[in-house]
Amino acid sequence: MTVVPIKHRVNEWPGSEAVLFVTGYDEVRAALGESRLIIHKPLTGNTEETKGITQGSRRIAPLSSVLSEHLAAREVASLATEVQTLTDEFARNLQREGQGDAIEGLASPLPLNIMARLLGLSKAPAGMLRPLFDRITAGHDFGATTVEQQQGRMALQMLVRWLNHALKTSVEPSPLMTAIRATAEEKGMEPAIVHYWCAMLLYAGSTTTRDFIGNILAALLARQDLVHVLLREPDALDSAIEELLRVEGPVRGLMRQATEDLPLGGQTASRGQLVCLMLIDANRDPARFAEPERWDLRRSPNPHLALGANLTYCLGSHLARMEAKNVLANLLPLLPYIRSNDTAAWSTSRLLRGRTQLRLSWHG
Ligand code: HEM
């Protein structure tokens, strides 16, 4: 199912002629702070659940300060033990069974469980939610067909409804949910909008980290030399995560729409035009990163754009880093004994870059 592998063929993406691609580091970074570019939201506005969310609704504001506070580095550190437990469980199963799928067994359920814990859900069934997430991704994708958009809308609707029900039946609200509800009430937000953002939070926090964990495991299994470097120099783990975000980050590009004619990266975006900010190219721009194709686990500074920048910088960045770091730290000693049997099964998404499966075998 290889559709758009590592080397993205942007000019072959359907509908690419009409879209303005921004690829240089400085240009992408500047565009991420450009308020005349609004986030393209092809799935919203049409259903009961999303009618209050329009093309112009830029940020997860008014909830963003609540999220910054509850997803701060110190807050998410308390979830590290849970990440370790889930990773150990996967490693034990792999050793016992001799084989396993790192996406199904670890990369997919782990961030989902953590998001469920943060939102105060008593359970988050990966088997039911993963197909909904995949449909939402496909509906948002570059060149999505009308049918894919319609399916994405329905999946989003189902996710909002499921989450609403799960929150009602959860035993005790989490500190994050309590803060979200209090802020929503104080700011007079409509419940439907709050439910939409919570569903998008569950989706954003689960799918990107899933893809990132899958990407870094696959990448390091193919580069055992780097595994040995990290085993010898564990203090390089933090900078290694940044370098892995730069080269193996799961977001290829972000879609925007121009609200007026504006100059962009030496081109002109006309009013209403779709613009694709290519994070993957910006992160490999030789004008910004020396030897961009080389993985330098101690690269410093490393101002990659894998988590966005400026107005919409990722609110889950600490959580994503904490999860990836703990998974890696726990699995590192085992990686020399693990082989990947897969010729990577890539997801069909153009804007996101992740694997649908990563079969491993144990050779300990
Ligand atoms: C490796 C994992 C992750 C990556 C690569 C990633 C990447 C990104 C990127 C590129 C953006 C900017 C989107 C835009 O400008 O249109 C973003 C925004 C966002 N991310 Fe993440 N993300 C990750 C994990 C997470 C997690 C774990 C959460 C939730 C706990 C999260 C929540 C958000 C939210 C709420 C926003 C919107 C911010 C705003 O509009 O103010 N992300 N993320």
Features:
single chain, 11 strands, binds protoporphyrin IX containing FE, 49% helix, 14 helices, four-stranded mixed beta sheet, Cytochrome p450, 364 residues, three-stranded antiparallel beta sheet, alpha+beta
Explain what you see.
The protein is α+β, with helices and mostly antiparallel strands and 364 residues long. It has helices at 25-31, 64-70, 73-77, 80-97, 102-107, 109-119, 126-140, 146-169, 175-186, 191-222, 224-232, 237-248, 279-282, 317-331, and strands spanning 20-22, 37-39, 99-101, 253-258, 262-264, 267-269, 274-278, 338-340, 345-346, 355-357, 359-362. The chain has a 4-stranded mixed β-sheet. β9 and β10 form a beta hairpin. The model has no long low-confidence stretch (mean pLDDT 91). Bound molecules: protoporphyrin IX containing FE. Protoporphyrin IX containing FE binds next to α2, α10 and α14.
Percent in helix: 40-55%
Oligomer: single chain
Q: Which strands sit side by side, in order, in the main sheet?
A: 1-7-4-2
Instruction: Compute the number of helices.
Output: 14
Q: Describe the biggest sheet?
A: 4 strands, mixed
Question: Gyration radius, to the nearest Å?
Answer: 20 Å
Q: Which residue ranges are poorly predicted, with pLDDT under 50 across at least 5 consecutive positions?
A: none
Total number of beta strands: 11
Order of helices and strands: EHEHHHEHHHHHHHHEEEEHHEEEE
Can you list the ligands bound to this structure? protoporphyrin IX containing FE
CATH-defined topology: Cytochrome p450
CATH hierarchy class name: Mainly Alpha
Mean pLDDT: 91
Distance between the termini: 30 Å
